[in-house]
Specification:
The structure holds 2 protein chains of 2 kinds. Chain A contains 12 helices and 2 strands. In chain A, helix 4 packs antiparallel against helix 10 and helix 10 packs antiparallel against helix 12. By secondary structure, chain A is mainly α. Chain B has a 6-stranded mixed β-sheet, sandwiched between helices. Chain B starts with 10 loop residues before the first strand and ends with a helix. The chains are: A mainly alpha, B alpha/beta. The structure holds adenosine-5'-triphosphate (ATP) and magnesium ion.
């Protein structure tokens, strides 16, 4: 400010002496939002009232809640729920990748079979599917291995399959259909140029997939898969349809039938489910952060529809439609 | 021409045609690239230049005509008087002797510069990692990026990325290099560094086919220039001659736009 001209001197008088030309912070009266405060107060009041009321209400049976929340049978049941979730997701992911690759195949029959699978398993309710799996032993008495219409070489009676595994099969075959779409969206999101470059270097299809395409697709596959795990944890409560009843929900129902007090045990089950989903959500948060970091600009990939195959930097011109947006389904959205 | 005329040409296209459905993109293209020479391919957008390069590399299948690289038929095998499509494995083996550089670099974004370069030698050629790394460092030094070996593509400028991409192709020790508009996606001030690398490569005796709009490069480095339009070779010959004295109307019209 070596040359104060008359036009500027008026503003300069408001500049603090140590500002050395830096603009003074604006001191304005904040815009008030009276209704915002009113709504907040009402909501807090309602919540407080509900909690006070609930804590005193007999029907909730807090004494029974306290008695059963860490009951051994309940924590065992929680273990079963976790096992159902883990086994089903592992099978679903493997089968989902297979189906996704089948759908991207050039062979119309392979493609069609994968499409048919998705059509059936996404087009019918999971509950109905689980009931069907429960009747599996009734429909198919034995599983035969051999040449059709001749005496089988090997014969397995199906009633040996425990209800637990029938539940896992039911959950995972349904989930695989959803995982397939997520994986497919991830693979399609990888720029075609990547495949081309790898092929031009003489890499085989498998090598290209394993070393180039899948690692890049992971950024898009991981976040919705986390959602699927959380969703699966809750869906396990439907295995009563098989019927498998050693899971969290089934066990709480059995106990409540004995003590003639259903509500506290529903609360017990809910508390466990909430605890698990909360842990998974924290894990999900860190996974998403990690995989959106990647190279280039951090950009959380919420949907599988982003093209973001190559992080765009100086000099790269990505022509419109370079990725696979057009054919990409939104994974994890349209749900049962 | 330095090599003996009796030598088999590196690339020989004889009436090569290619259609996508009913769209005939290449119409009976014939041209020859002798060993150690540089051919520049120019032409307007959509004239089929990229498609022709991709046919040489068997990324696209030729519909008619004969295309040979180093005397070997591309994409097909001749047994008796019948042509058989190649198995993917055999096609991949043909490809690894042909380096390709793309307009958009197509580096693997999840790998560092050096990982990009050693990937194919290790996976495809089965070279030991240590040996591949030594060779990759040499190549990085050759393209002037010795200090960038641990950088991810996203942290490199366009010109640097393209030079890594060239090094990646060279790591397979190709006998032929294909360049598809290697400088078209670059900011003008970055074009020179990539062209310099290509010029050095040409001087080292590499056989190259370069699709480019850089007429200065064509004039200075190329041994011959081919002008394509609408899927046919309209005019070809000595670059200086074609550029300063285009005979065909379409060549004249095109050159007046790009020069
Ligand atoms: N995979 C494909 N399927 C169908 N048509 C294609 C395919 N690839 C290219 N074409 C068509 O072939 C024609 C030639 O394309 P090509 O990319 O070879 O042109 P080009 O000379 O490289 O143009 P540019 O300078 O824009 O890169 C275009 O009309 C294009 O639409
Ligand atoms: Mg092109």
């Amino acid at each position: 400010m070596s040359q104060p001209d008359s036009g500027r001197s008026a503003t300069q008088s408001t500049v603090l002496p140590n500002g050395a030309g830096a603009p003074a912070p604006i001191k304005a009266i904040r815009l008030r939002h009276p209704w915002r405060n009113v709504v907040a107060v009402i909501l807090i009041l309602m919540l407080a009232l509900f909690i006070i009321d609930a804590s005193q209400r007999d029907a909730y049976g807090w004494d029974n809640f306290a008695k059963y929340i860490f009951d051994k049978r309940i924590s065992q049941a929680a273990g079963y729920t976790l096992l159902l979730t883990i086994y089903s997701m592992i099978i679903a992911i493997i089968l989902g990748i297979t189906l996704a690759v089948m759908r991207l195949s050039d062979n119309p029959v392979v493609k069609g079979v994968a499409w048919l699978y998705l059509w059936v398993f996404r087009g019918t309710p999971i509950y109905v599917q689980l009931v069907f799996w429960g009747l599996f032993a009734t429909i198919y008495k034995t599983i035969d291995i051999g040449i059709p219409f001749t005496t089988p070489w090997l014969q397995f009676p199906t009633d040996f399959i425990s209800v637990f595994w029938l539940a896992v099969i039911g959950l995972s075959l349904n989930e695989a259909a959803y995982m397939a779409e997520i994986v497919r969206a991830g693979i399609l999101s990888v720029d075609k140029g990547q495949d081309e470059a790898a092929t031009a270097l003489g890499m085989s299809w498998i090598q290209t997939m394993r070393r180039v395409v899948i690692p890049q697709a992971m950024r898009i596959i991981i976040p919705p898969t986390g959602n699927e795990v959380i969703s699966m944890l809750k869906t396990t409560s439907l295995v009563a349809a098989v019927p498998f009843s050693f899971d969290l929900y089934g066990r709480s129902r059995d106990i409540s039938a004995v003590i003639f007090d259903p509500i506290p045990l529903l609360l017990v089950a809910s508390a466990w489910y909430l605890a698990f989903t909360s842990i998974l959500m924290v894990g999900q948060y860190f996974l998403e952060k990690r995989f959106s970091r990647g190279v280039g600009q951090a950009r959380p990939e919420k949907k599988g529809t982003e093209t973001g195959a190559i992080p765009v930097t100086t000099g790269i011109v990505v022509p419109p439609g370079a990725g696979g947006t057009d054919t990409t389904d939104k994974p994890g959205k349209e749900h049962r | 021409m330095t090599t003996a005329t009796s030598d088999i040409p590196m690339v020989h296209a004889d009436c090569v045609s290619k259609s996508f459905g009913s769209n005939e993109v290449l119409k009976s293209i014939s041209l020859t690239v002798p060993r150690g020479e540089v051919l520049c391919l120019v032409g307007p957008s959509g004239s089929g230049k990229s498609t022709f390069l991709r046919c040489i590399n068997h990324l696209e299948r030729v519909n008619a005509g004969r295309l040979t690289v180093d005397g070997v038929l591309v994409g097909y095998e001749e047994r008796g008087d019948k042509l058989y499509e190649l198995k993917p494995k055999v096609a991949a083996r043909q490809r690894r002797d042909i380096g390709m550089v793309f307009q958009r670099f197509n580096l693997f974004p999840h790998m560092t510069a050096i990982e990009n370069i050693i990937e194919a030698p290790i996976r495809v050629k089965g070279i030991k990692k240590e040996a591949a790394v030594v060779r990759a460092r040499e190549l990085l030094a050759r393209v002037g990026l010795a200090e960038k070996e641990d950088a991810y593509p996203a942290h490199l400028s366009g010109g640097q990325q393209q030079r890594v991409a060239i090094a990646r192709a060279l790591a397979m020790d190709p006998k032929l290099m294909l360049f598809d508009e290697p400088t078209s996606a670059l900011d003008p001030e970055l074009v020179g560094e990539v062209l310099d690398v290509m010029k050095n490569l040409a001087e080292s005796g590499m056989t190259m086919i370069v699709v480019t709009h850089e007429m200065g490069f064509a004039r200075e480095v190329a041994d011959s220039l081919v002008f394509m339009d609408g899927g046919v070779v309209v005019e070809s010959g000595d670059p200086a001659e074609v550029l300063s004295n285009p005979k065909h109307k379409r060549t004249q019209a095109f050159l007046s736009k790009v020069l």
